[in-house]
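Lab notebook, design round three. We kept the backbone fixed and only want residue identities now. Task for the bench partner: fill in a sequence for the structure below.
Input structure tokens:
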């Protein structure tokens, strides 16, 4: 199976030396890639700026901005079976100013919404198997499940893995999440990202009958 995995944050330039970004280490995506390779799948990573160790046998495409990540991923999906979208793609991008903005005083940024990868992927590739990751903050378990279900339905995804970032999972070896696929909801209690990756892959392979 040919799998494309997005991971890490994107960086959206304010000027030529500054940027805004999301908190994401890329660990979950890298761990899913490692597990996918172990199971014999062909894995390509579309990787934002990260410092985690990436699997040697994966093809790696490095990107920086949301525009680059979305464009490269959609190109790669022309020849893929599955998309696992773990990346924390920026929701907004500033109108970039050339050079370096002078420091001192207030700075007002005008932000424009970025494109939505999973939405575009589903429209362009109706038969593609898509695993989406949904991040929330401090909303509680019931609302987290509700948010995951909404994303599953609205974006016509196959699986959604949702987590609450207030549980201090960013840049941690552990994670805590809930996984839903329209048939059942499976809590993933506090565990290592390696064990969570195995459970996510088990669900993917079960649904695809691989």
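Proposed sequence:
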């Amino acid at each position: 199976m040919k799998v494309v995995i997005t991971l890490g944050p994107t960086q959206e330039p304010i000027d030529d030396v500054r940027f805004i970004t999301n908190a994401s280490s890329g660990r979950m995506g890298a761990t899913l890639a490692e597990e996918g390779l172990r199971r014999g799948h062909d894995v390509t990573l579309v990787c934002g700026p990260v410092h985690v160790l990436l699997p040697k046998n994966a093809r790696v495409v490095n990107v920086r901005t949301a525009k680059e990540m979305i464009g490269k991923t959609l190109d790669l999906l022309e020849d893929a079976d599955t998309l696992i979208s773990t990346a924390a793609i920026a929701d907004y991008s500033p109108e970039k100013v050339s050079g370096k903005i002078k420091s001192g005083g207030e700075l007002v940024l005008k932000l424009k919404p970025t494109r939505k990868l999973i939405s575009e992927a589903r429209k362009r590739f109706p038969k593609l198997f898509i695993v989406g990751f949904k991040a929330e903050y401090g909303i509680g378990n019931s609302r987290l499940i509700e948010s995951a279900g909404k994303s599953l339905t609205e974006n016509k995804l196959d699986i959604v893995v949702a987590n609450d970032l207030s549980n201090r999972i960013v840049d941690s070896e552990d994670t805590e999440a809930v996984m839903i696929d329209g048939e059942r909801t499976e809590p993933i209690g506090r565990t290592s990202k390696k064990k969570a990756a195995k459970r996510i892959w088990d669900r993917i392979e079960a649904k695809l009958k691989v």
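Keep this in mind before ordering anything: The chain has a mean pLDDT of 95.
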